[in-house]
């Protein structure tokens, strides 16, 4: 088994984000390749750090994952040699250190040292497993999930923030060739409390003798088709019924493989290999879950994590382990799985390079699925790369700990299909834009756009099979995945050209528009400004219906104003006006959406109006490009141009600092308020009006978000399904004003306990 | 699999032992056949009661054991039909009840009811298992043992009397096709606390697919030859060394069968089936012991019994389970095994016929190995029949709870070999006697003596392989087994003729001898009487050296007196004389030995002397015939003849009741003072002098016995090995007087707690 990733050391320019220089790995910051390796009985797992070579990555670092068969340790060594050799081209380290764990760290110590010319520092296996697990649980969104096929939605991610007190004590059942069970208590103390020799090696070993299948996947495929009751002796086979007195159902397995010996020798050949496969899979899984449960009981532990390469994200294994834990615990405990289950030890070894926890604590970590390890397999939980990103934080004005960005629960298979289809159907539009971007940049290698199309479509295929493979499916996640794929394939701001053109036109129109507005009677202004915001928001290349009109040049600002109707259900502008007239607000934040008419003709005049009411205004724009959304850099440039001809804006921005521009830390058309840039969060501490604009930010996400201060959501239904679901019509504009629920004390104190440690997932994170 | 026992309903006369009529099943007492059946997933186990048809059995009842494959339930039904049919010939029960348990009790309920025309009463499986286990633990000597091949003597029987408080709580791990784990607490409450589907069915099923072996025994044979390290991945294979930090040795199995998958597919055929067998055996055993240990920890239980047909007394299985428990518990807990391990449920079901516990409590149960189930197998722990016998009890004058009848510890393999050889070499003498007995009784079927020879020799072969197969090997056990085999083959009192002849001669001599003694000066009498006892004790057909002399007519009373020398080491007659002269004794018991000169010329004059010192005398003789030992019936007849010519004996026996004859409850040349008849025990409560006579009773056994009153041991070394071991010469007579250690209070109170419940093993018991 070799890696699907290739180490790519081609140089590339890295966007400088000066604000994060102190916490992210900045452009000129160069870390040598760092490697953590966990050599088990069967597999050698490798985690290594690489400098981020992608132009659109915000930071300099990335963690990569791969594995080799221990039997072929030479291949693994060749691979590591290559990594180190490439790194040596730029940094020559006299004493390069390899952090190694697992039994092979001892066994192959000398070999690694000699072949790689590195100092092999052996780390304790159990410690590495737990270091890796703790890192994943705390840093990676949607790492932990439960799995049960008896539920409509088998895979359920653990979303609730877990307090440290709730987390500890826990046990980790690490299933490799053999099994180790480790208990971890609050003080970080860990103890190997047991193990079992009945592990992955046992199942694969027996099945390789008993069936024609010779790879893990073949065996798992076989077991999916099998019926264990043809091989196993069930309680019903013995009792002819339930043994209800002691709670054994007739379908309970009384004896694994118990039907085989009862047959005459000559008939034993007739057992089907798929039935045997399923029987043995159940045997190993049930047994492990029983031992794990007993250990958990004995140590009074409620949380049982399963890790190790045995699981490999396979539904049948996870379901079986889950079933076991449910069965033995009578439903009181759920088995917890980890998406990076196989890499705990290697990740732990890698992290030992960073003995200094503070260094880790300064960074955020976010998963990037563009090159998910299992994109070609049937596995349901994919392992992506982990990008090292600036630390993000919770938006301080969210009311509830139960905040969840996504408006729509895509657990309905029909809805899942609809959205995946939608993204699939319209993929070609993105490809066209990407091609044209290549063209504009005089790049002739059109393979990249093909790769982008291929890779995104492959992900969509994975999601068709297992919608929650990358965390819970949402429109937001589909959008982010698309952006990630674009960036991973080397595309920059593919709407650059469109945005430039629209900006130019809009800025030409703006002076006149401002004059008209200033001339309106005071009591009519607000209504017109809101109409303009909604009309401007029509200029959305990300909305498929609108994209066509825009491409054909069928839309201008005036036609947009006619097209957009006021929503009957979500339009309470008068309430907002009343609050505004009472001079209740001192500082507003506006999460802005598209470039062009939207920002220039819609938002800037509206912000100018708020400023005129003595309200400070923060404009919060994306850090990274995404469709035709206005980026922080775009916005700075626009505002600077506006200051040149509009005094109120110039005064507010340049003289009084009452108009401010911040970046959100995001690169998504949606808005996850659990992860905004720390600077924005800080600037918003005393905000008393939150305004969110656009379909992605105020409909797909945050439609139900509640704030501790008043809020206003402005958007247009540009998707029929969304309109229908929320009870609107196509091209209805919403103006949804909601009073804040001011229970700051509770909301804040509760959050501050946990969000810093738990929820600082990265800017590319589409989940947390 | 069919039974090795055949149900034998041929009628025969049953010895009437009037004294036990009330507690044993007397001659005319007729119980219908009672059957308990436990139908598991693979095996149907049957326990049934049968009327004892053997002439020399003391009582009317016997429990028999057999099993069938559940797959062939028809064979089992045929067998039961036969039993019931035979029984119907004598007792016609309108509503015959079959007690059934196990899953099949439900599944085959209708079938059993229709085919056997019985009322099938289904009993709860877990309850039956525990009822059976408790019965065995409490009633059957040497039922429970530990096993560890790392000890010089792997099989160690649990001899210490276990208080109820120590016994409970315990868990039973019942390993059949699948596994049930049951916890039993003091109040008799039982709970199935868990189980496992990895049981016997799993091992046999997998091995039947993976090896050419197709029977249990073939598989176990294979596994004995195998090396699991060729198949299993050991800690050392991964680490290259111990993983000492967490206490894993390099030889610990990290992954069962973990080396298989690492090989290339084409090389996997090369794994040896014996190695795979051993690996899987370890896998199942280690896993079960781990689960059992975890359950024991969880429930704070110290005693773990393993039962069920998986174990089948096979050393490799027991050793592996034991090793597992030792390993997981770090040596704090030992696995406990049961000789009747496979019959717990069936026995429990059988006992449900006797809902009335009082009825059970009145009886003693003793194992009889003559038809041990496994005489032809390599199994080490044989399961015999269980005879229902009168209740026996502890001899009340024993000093210590640590009393053990056997003088010689036969754990030395050389000593074991010597005694087995001795019994083997001299077997022909018994066969000759048996033939001559057949002849005297005009019985011409000499096959019986051949069968006796065959069966005893077979047992000796089993014991050569596994000396402790039937409980700890001792001279006593070899002697009893020989007697049991004789009786089982239908032989009665084969020394009847010899005894009659010797009695006649001795009685002719007695009057004259008594006159001579009476004429002696008072201070010379005792010495002469003791000389006579020792000379008389030479007339022992059970002692091989003497047997030859006796057969050739080379020995008479006078020549015997010359032959017997006083032991230098063990002859303190003067001390006894001093105590006697102080008139310290009021009641003596003499455990007598041989018929003929021994009892008539040795013991009777000595008893007469004690009577003359105003000491009441109890003569305690065997209940059942055994070599030329005087039986209770023999002794009654002798005393009655003596009363006809000797006034002191007549007065003491017939008028004042100062001379009494009791039976011991035994049929052995040895004496186990933990099991004497209740009447004798009661009569001895106020005895202040215990006299034990003979090599079997005072040398092979009881040589080291200590009493709370004074005691006198009288015997002659008639075996060179015994003489050498104890430090004497051949034909040395010993007269060993020991002062009692009068700590009655403690000794009695301690005993009364336990001996009634625990140690009432039967008269044929050679162990307890």
Number of helices of chain A: 28
- In the CATH classification, which architecture of the largest domain in chain A applies? 3-Layer(aba) Sandwich
Based on secondary structure, the structural category of chain A is: alpha/beta
User: How is the main sheet of chain A built?
Assistant: 7 strands, mixed
Terminal Cα separation of chain A, in Å? 32 Å
Q: What share of the residues of chain A lie within helices? A: 40-55%
Oligomeric state, counting identical vs distinct chains: homodimer
Shape of chain A: elongated
Largest interface (CB within 8 Å) is between:
A-B, 70 and 70 residues
Number of strands of chain A: 25
The side-by-side strand order for the widest beta sheet of chain A comes to: 5-4-1-2-3-16-15
CATH fold group of the largest domain in chain A: Rossmann fold
If you average the pLDDT of chain A, what whole number results?
84
CATH superfamily of the largest domain in chain A: Uncharacterised protein PF01937, DUF89, domain 3
GO biological process, one term (chains A, B): coenzyme A biosynthetic process
Domain Damage-control phosphatase ARMT1-like metal-binding (chains A, B): 444-732
Family (chains A, B): Belongs to the type II pantothenate kinase family.
EC number (chains A, B): 2.7.1.33
